[in-house]
């Protein structure tokens, strides 16, 4: 069943939905962007149809609704603790196909990893129903088609926005009553079939190739280019690493709260161990780790997709203009060079 709503009708449906759901969508925050006089688009609860930013990709991913950059996980006193609480109201999360597919990956890490189920992720994920935002093709950093994340069927309703309003397809019949009396129109969501940008992750199944790639000079370039700020991982749709921090109330160090805070493998000291030892002490080492984690390790471990969904947000957010797609394509060229060299030497 499909419906075509003008802005007034869309506001009326949103008002009905908000009685049963907290509705989250990309929203514009004026003058809170990287530079003075620039905006930022990030996920937040919306109250009116005009709050929803649908015509540009959000700067930060939908994951922020499920795993905010910081959250209190428990409160403690001298000898007791209590888990934090979240609002029990269900969430309707408006998201593009890449963001919806990213949640499959996040769920694999948080809730399907060796039998361990992350309480804080799962309690949020169980509240979420997706509303698909039909994507018109993203921007020139997107490569969802290369990563196979351009399509999804994990949504209750689908939405095609325009300046005049929104066309809605209802997949989950429990949503039909919210549209009672609204003008009907047939609608099937379209998915992006081709991006301008194409990325080809290399075949790294040969351990000798992987060993040679680890020492390849391409990673040295990042020692001078990457400033280890971590912006790319904070903006990443699928990164899950976090650390914890205790916030102490007043003078008593035994009363306070523990927060979970996003962490980044790109920041110096991320992997520091006892004795100040670090496994990846240069920006180039850390870049190699991140790129291989996204484009080799995850798939090798879980035998499904790569960990990157091709949203391009890391490229958009990098202050040094380091492009993930250019880096992967460069890695692909390095692997071809390594394989040709091995063939020449008869290895
Ligand atoms: S690595 Fe970059 S392109 Fe891939 S999912 Fe993360 S932010 Fe998106
Ligand atoms: S790649 Fe860019 S965004 Fe990521 S840590 Fe390096 S400079 Fe920062």
UniProtKB/TrEMBL annotation:
Keywords, sorted A to Z: Iron, Iron-sulfur, Metal-binding
Keyword Iron-sulfur: yes
SUPFAM superfamilies: alpha-helical ferredoxin
Residue ranges of domain 4Fe-4S ferredoxin-type in the record: 215-247, 298-327
Metal-binding keyword on record: yes
Coiled-coil regions, chain positions: none
Any one GO molecular function term: metal ion binding
Domain of life from the UniProt record: Bacteria
NCBIfam families, per the entry: sulfite_red_A
Protein name: Anaerobic sulfite reductase subunit AsrA
Organism per entry: Eisenbergiella massiliensis
